[in-house]
Structure formats: C-alpha cells, structure tokens
C-alpha cells in the first residue's frame, strides 16, 4: 500500500492482481450499468472512478457507511495488476482495504468463478463456427455490475418500463439525493406523505438536453463520421422524446451564475487569486471560470455536476414514498425501491445470503433464488432475470421490447412479447449455459455500429442510445418521368 500527497489531495494506491486475459476498458464498458451514475468512465485516460463505501451490507449497524472516491486504472507498465487509488486523508485499515477491493472485484467480475465463466464462454464460442460469432469472439465474457447487490437490484428496477434517458436521470437523481442526505441538508420521515411536498428541498432539476447545440457538439466530437450524421439527424426527435419522458421543464432547469458557483460539482481551488474550480470526479483543476461553467462548459473528463454515491438501503429506508417519487422522478418505482430498502434494513431480505448462494453460480440454485426474488414487491420475470444475471447466471435472457427489436433487426425474426422467450432459446440455445453472454455480445455490437464504441463516448451522450435513434428510415420512392 502506497500513499501520495499533492495538489489533488492524498491518495492511497492499492494493487489488485489480475488473471492473464483481462481488459479494463472492455470489462467496464460492457453493459449500460457502467453509464449509470455514480459510475464514471474517462475515455481519455481509460480510468474508471466512483465513490465506494467502507461497508458491503446494510444489516450491520456497526459498519462504517462513509464513502471515498476510488479510481481504477490498468497501466501499461503493470499488465498483471490493477491500480486502485483511494482518496483519503491518512491510511486505510486492513478491513477498509478488503472492503474496497471486494467491491472492485465484484464490479469487474474478478472472482475465480467469474474467471472460469469468462474462459468457458470464450471456449464455447470457438466451438460454434459461423460468421455471427465474430462479435462474440471479441466480447470479453465479463459483464460490468455494481459494487453491491443492493445497487444492482435498484438499478434493475430503474430499467423497467421506461426509456434509457429516463433510467439515467433517475439514477443521477438518486445520487444527487444521496449527497444531500450525506450533508444532512434536510430530513424526511417515513410517515409523512401528506406533508412530503412541504418538506421537499429546493432543487434544480437538470434538463437532459445538451447545453451545446447537438449538431455542433456531435460534429466536434465525431468529425464527419456516420455516427455524427445518424445522431445529428435524430436530434430533434430525441429531444422531443426526452422532454416527454422525463417530465422536466425548462422552468426548473434555469440556473443563475450564483447557483453555478455554489454547485457542489466544482469546488473552489485552494490556490488564491483565481476563480478556477476543481472537478470532484477527476480531481483536476478545470481551466474554466464561473461564466464558462454557467454557459455549460465541462471539465475535460465530461463531468457536468457533482453527485454523491448511490444511496444505501440504510439511507433510503426512512424516506417518505411521495417525497422520493417526486424528488427523483421515480413514479411507482419509489414504493418498490423503499420496500426493498426497508426489507434489507430490518433484516427480512438477506442480501449476504443471496450473494453467497449466487456467487457459486450453481444452476441448481437458480430456481430457489428466483423464487426468493419474486417474493419481493416489484420483482417480476424481467427484473429477476437481470438481477440473477448480475449474480452470474447467464443461461436465462431477460426479455423485453428491446429484445424484440434486436431479433427483428439482426435476426429478421417477427417476435412478440409472447413469443420472444421461445425465439431467444432457438437462437442462443447452442451457447448454453451462456445464452445471455452471446445475446448481449450481439446487442452491444449492434449499439457500437450505430453510436460508436461506448468507451469512447462522453457521458453527456449516453442518453442518445435509444430505440428511436436506431430506427431505419424507409426511403420514399419517387416516380421519375422519362424525358427525351
């Protein structure tokens, strides 16, 4: 364990040994979960950062629930280990080190079971000889997930019945709420639905339309590529979809210069005589003054605002449902999230036991785990299958309208919600017990064809990955009159 001090504060360096075949960029940028706050991938430095807690579960009141910023990188000169930098004043206790490293290993699927699954998937793909396996061969066999099972479960709830931009906005709102809870800027009781609005803190809802005109921003980022043309031509349609889906108004999105200066995103630099700010994500001094920030400029890492960690079950359990629904725009999902948090906090839902059973990825335990999850309010087949995928079960594909779209566009299958499960078994059954990995490798490759590599995108563009932006426009045939 090494420590370093400097203008960015004090960082402790930990090293995590790796197996022979591991690619940080490919592993992190392998699923939409990596795009959901508070996760942050920097495409320039190829570094992943986010806050992590000194506790894994919420059922032990003696655990330290505080968070620290963690950066994960894979230097070229260190091929057999990850560098995990923890920002903390002082040193880390052995228990704190163990907890941080356990969360990093969970996110990147570095356990022996995960390593075996990735290796066996690659071997399975090699046995299937066809042109469709090209993208599967490039897929690493690891799917990014959250540092804790609770965060995975909540985010799986956020994936249900809404467009991707709405999912991102709900996750971001929860992280902003956590920062306020952490700073104790307000309190909300469990029994107070009638007064939820009166206790609602003053907030500035973010409008999820790029502050820079889309055509200029995309042209600047992608040059004259096909991606730029596709995304720019879809901008007007996407903007309308986003406004309707998030139910946000420009009225709530207005900010003053003073608001920007006081935002927790960029804190005043310790150096006197300037108005530069320091980004809380990448911890570098941004050469932007207050006016630049007000006009919508970002730090080079792409960070737009300061957010906290993803809230823990302990932090959410005491909140009022009406308040949470309105504050984070969760709608009916607020009740499901709170029921989950309270069930964990009072000991009715044992996450540690679920994790231990699921960690072995024993197919015989799948039905038992699925049954336990279905007993939780709001955990239907799609959500359960997603959670179990996060636990390492890849033989069941979570199917929804996105699956129907994929089978239609890639496999020319006229599937419906009623027939899609049978169709995916027919297509991906040959990859058992890794049907989901094969399916997801195809889906992810399809996204890359439309939008470019997700690992190269700025986080401000994640919301552009929508089904409406993947519609193939039919060309209108015109009758031409032959002239002599």
Automatic annotation (TrEMBL):
Task: Show the SUPFAM superfamilies listed in the entry.
Answer: DNA-glycosylase
Q: Which InterPro entries match?
A: DNA_glycosylase (IPR011257), Oxidative_DNA_repair_enzyme (IPR052054)
Q: Name one GO biological process term.
A: base-excision repair, AP site formation
| GO CC annotation terms, alphabetical | nucleus
Q: Which Gene Ontology terms cover its molecular function?
A: 8-oxo-7,8-dihydroguanine DNA N-glycosylase activity
Task: Supply the source organism for this entry.
Answer: Tripterygium wilfordii (Thunder God vine)
Q: What's this protein's name? A: HhH-GPD domain-containing protein
* Taxonomy, superkingdom: Eukaryota
